[in-house]
Amino acid sequence: MLSQFRAEAPHHITLANLNFSFAKDVYPVGRLDADSEGLLLLSNNKKLNAQLLHPKRKKPKTYWVQVEGIPDEKKLQSLRKGVAIRIKGKTHQTQPCKAELLDPPPILPERNPPIRVRKSIPDCWLSITLTEGKNRQIRRMCAAVGFPVLRLVRSSIAGFVFDEGALAGLQPGDVREVKDEDLV
After folding, report:
1. DSSP 34
2. In the list 2, 29, 55, 130, which could disulfide-bond 41, CB 3.0-4.6 Å?
3. Domain that holds residue 67
4. Residues assigned a catalytic role
5. Could you give the number of structural domains in the chain?
């Protein structure tokens, strides 16, 4: 599903396809690419949107990342310090981040379509927390240290967490409305 309301092609599935009646002034706070899953906030609260989207207010976003192979401490340290990635032909040095092996792996619904699994190559899950958000950044960072991404799931945005509190139990395509007075 694309994290937008308008389809760019007839075969695209978008937020407009969800079984929920959104107000006209609601829009996504940030984006997920078509190959990524997880938490997406939609809001018509202009103050909240400004707080979460303003480039100078670096709000943390955490992702669960299934990668091919098992990174050692040296590779994890490279991710933590920041790596050079290419975006639109230019080199970008990523900001320091948090990167840890995630054990046990998260319990998630099956992905549709399923990920590619190679029996001869082990895989593992990482938890990566960023305060920046370049295009396909996590995929590029993991590739830069030699670990292609198989599955990418955003688990939290600035304190909104996929696996706790008001967001527990959400399945792909589920929508949970949170009122302004429920926000901390």
Report:
1. T
2. 29
3. 58-175
4. 33
5. 1
